[in-house]
Amino acid sequence: MHGGNTGQVLFVDLGSGKISPERLASQVYQEFLGGYGLGARVIFSRQPKDVDPLGPGNILGFVTGPLVGTPAITGCRFTVCGKSPLTGTWGDSNCGGYFGPALKMTGYDAVFFLGQSPRPVYLYLGAEGAALHAADDLWGQDTFATEDELRRRHGRGTQVAAIGPAGERKSLIAAIINDYGRAAGRSGLGAVMGSKNLKAVAARGTLAVPLADPEAASGLRRQYITAMAKNPRVRHFNKYGTIDHVASSAFSNDSPVRNWAWPGVDFPEATKISDDALLEYQYKKYGCWQCNIVCGGHFRVESGPYKTESAHKPEYETCAMFGNNLLNANPESLIKINDICNRYGVDTISAGATIGWAIECFEHGLLTAADSGGVSLEWGDDQTIVALTEALARGEGFGRLGELLARGSAAAAAAVGRGSEQYAIHVGGQELPAHDPKYAPSWGTYYVGDATPGRHTQLGLVTYENGPGLPGLELPVHIERHAYAGKGEWAAKIQNIMHAAYCCGVCMFAVQRMEVHGWPEFLSAVAGEDFDLDDFELIGRRVAALRGAFNMREGIAPKTHFALPDRAAGRPPLSKGPLEGITIDLETLTAEYFAAQGWDSLGRPTESTLRDLGLDDVADEVYGPAGS
Amino acid sequence: MGRPEAECGLLRVTLTGEPVTIVGGSRFCLELAAPVGLSELFDRLGSEVHPWFGALCRSGGRLADLGEVMVVLDGRRLDLMDDADLAVSGGHLYIIPPITGG
User: Which of A222, A250, A432, A463 could be bridged to A324 by S-S, CB 3.0 to 4.6 A?
Assistant: First the structure.
């Protein structure tokens, strides 16, 4: 590839302090693009199996993509990746804001951290080069103070991705925060930073990203911005962002309500924490780097117990997990909770789910006032939920609950036992996001079939089960929401295309709203080589197989390790509401999906699939040398 | 017929998501003097509130540019085709567009 990527990545050994730039072969970019594709390729080759995710052997990558920092629509995303301490599987988490382009413009497509530093450090990347700096004075600071201080030291153009106290304490649900509230939240990778004594990565990029055909790329940008501006779905999303459907999701039961146990029609108060009701707190809009959708915002609560000077607009996931899921209808509490989680560096999805687990345990006497410092935990009690969130983020307080809940729901349930496990709604250790497979069954396919279990960003065929699909890509069959047979081929195809788009470094929301052929068009203009949608599908299939092989090497197979919780599958089904009586046939969905990907019945990529995709070294490692 | 929720009569209609932008409001109230069929109800919404409701009904609940729209009356999911003749005399009607993540 001639453009898009710089061709160079950085390896930082935190044990020795050695910083080593390295050029990657062009073929690596052609085959994996960037993001978690490139990350998986590099990490699989350089990291042995069975490393402790919180030990020095776990390699942590911050990876951009070939469309990051280019004229491509939403070309701003970066992916953090490594072995997840939350699930023990391949882990990745994707984030927007301004950090991705800043990293790319330092001249590196990615930074990989090896080893563990003996003391807190941060990495600074800028025109002066790359250097590790002491971070003893930053350790213990929240992510906002850290960002402020690093911007003061290195200049206003510096972009910072940092952990807060939760990551420092190695909370398994710790997030990495940039831009005062954009979160790479999933997979617990903030804990990996903490384990490495790596407080932050600060990037001040000043170099232009090489473009093969800048005029063509700019022309495509104008073309697609014009088209999207006419699209009412884009205009609606510009106004509301993801909070437009907190109530929709409750009433349709897309969202969990009362820890996945209730029909959403029993929570009519969801309208108080959705769309216009929340938008009243917005005082200015926010958009990621060069984004034309601009779905974000800055919120303010002027007075009262949840007074907040300025905070990012909470996303749907946060409102659903701390609102609908906990029967909490106080919008100001959600803004405060979002701010707490961003400052301490905590994943709001996992945190909301874990508090739901705690409240239900309290309801059933599995946790008592003796555990919670004398405080009673009740559904919809916003004051207690906010206080409990802060205790979780601090890892202390509320009796022993602060420390217990900071582990996430699966580990907390394992510690409590006595049947509390049934109230921990997770797959493979990762709490489910706020989309119910009973509403769109392909969520279930990806929750258990993807290498990072329980992820809402892997939505593939959901866009067709439940919407018009990817713009410009009509399938030859009608995808019926609650039909199960015949979906596997399409579930694999659409997810693989989305894998490739994500690996380019673009936003999920744009992928759902922009003509899909535009993504390979942008990549062709930027890279100087022709790509089409078939190439994207093949690259995505390769990336999916490699991530699956990572898990396979760890002895993990989807079928044996990832189980969908009964409540999410509809066992037993809900007794009322729009999803009344529905139990999904996950067996058929996953069997067909695995077959379509070229994986075995346990969901592991077969040897022939790996070799067909050019992953011979991977096949050699997980199956032994060819012919052996 | 389309009136603010504060003056609500027999049937409350709550719109969510993208249709709010299309229709220009999220909550309406209809006074139903007598039960009407579901299909007729959407025709009335189409003529008296916004043509989008009529288009939705004619599409059978699946609009090309939006996808499958969920219609829920008092907690029960309705099918605009199969339940076209269902008599509606009041209650709370939710009209929910497809949700595909976020």
Answer: A250
List the domain boundaries for chain A. 8-203, 240-431, 442-623
Closest C-alpha among A454, A466, A432 to residue A578: A466
Domain limits for position B54 = 5-96
Token look-up 């709010």 returns: B20
Sequence-distant (6+) residues with CB within 8 A of B98 are A466, A467, A468, B66, B67, B68, B69, B70
Contacts of A508 in chain B (CB under 8 A): 101-102
Using a CB-CB distance cutoff of 8 angstroms, which residues of chain A are in contact with residue B96?
A: 248, 251-252
Fold entry, domain A8-203: Aldehyde Ferredoxin Oxidoreductase;  A, domain 1 (3.60.9)
Q: How far apart are CA A492 and CA A157, in angstroms?
A: 41
Look at B17 and A248 and tell me if their CB atoms are within 8 Å: yes
Examine residue B12 and state whether it is found in any structural domain, yes or no: yes
CA–CA dist A506, A103 (Å, integer): 15
ipTM: 0.86
Please check whether the two domains, A8-203 and A442-623, share a CATH topology.
Answer: no
For residues A422-447, b (16+ Cβ closer than 10 Å) or e, as one string? ebbbbbbbbbbbbbbbbbbbbbbbbb
Q: How many CB pairs under 8 A join A and B?
A: 109
- Domain total in chain B: 1
Reduced to 3 states (helix: H, G, I; strand: E, B; else coil), residue A463 is helix
* Residue range B21-65, pLDDT digits in tens: 889 888 888 888 889 999 999 999 999 999 999 999 999 998 888
The pLDDT > 70 percentage for chain B reads: 90
CB contact under 8 A, A462 and B64: no
Of A130, A458, A144, A108, which is closest to residue A309 (Cα–Cα)?
A: A144
Tokens at residue B79, please? 């099918």
A254 touches chain B (CB under 8 A): yes
pTM for this entry? 0.96
DSSP reduced 3-state for A508? helix
pLDDT computed for residue B6 by the predictor: 40
Confidence tier at B7 by pLDDT (50, 70, 90): very low
For A120-130, write each residue's pLDDT tens digit: 999 999 988 99
Tell me how far the alpha carbon of residue B23 is from its chain's centroid: 11
Q: Which of B74, B42, B45 is nearest to B61 (CA)?
A: B42
Instruction: Assess if residue B63 is contained within a domain.
Output: yes
pLDDT of residue B9: 52
Q: Is A580 on the interface with B (CB under 8 A)?
A: yes
Percent residues over pLDDT 90 in chain B = 51
CA-closest candidate to residue A450, choices A32, A34, A31, A89: A89
Question: Are residues A275 and B64, on separate chains, in Cβ contact within 8 Å?
Answer: no
- Give, in words, the CATH class of A442-623: mainly alpha
The domain defined by A240-431 carries CATH number 2.60.40.1220:
no
**pLDDT at A626 (0 to 100):** 86
Instruction: Measure the CA–CA gap between B101 and A276, rounded to whole angstroms.
Output: 19
pLDDT per position as a tens digit, A189-227: 999 999 999 999 999 999 999 999 999 999 999 999 999
Is B101 a member of any domain? no
Whichever domain contains B19, its CATH number is: 3.10.20.30
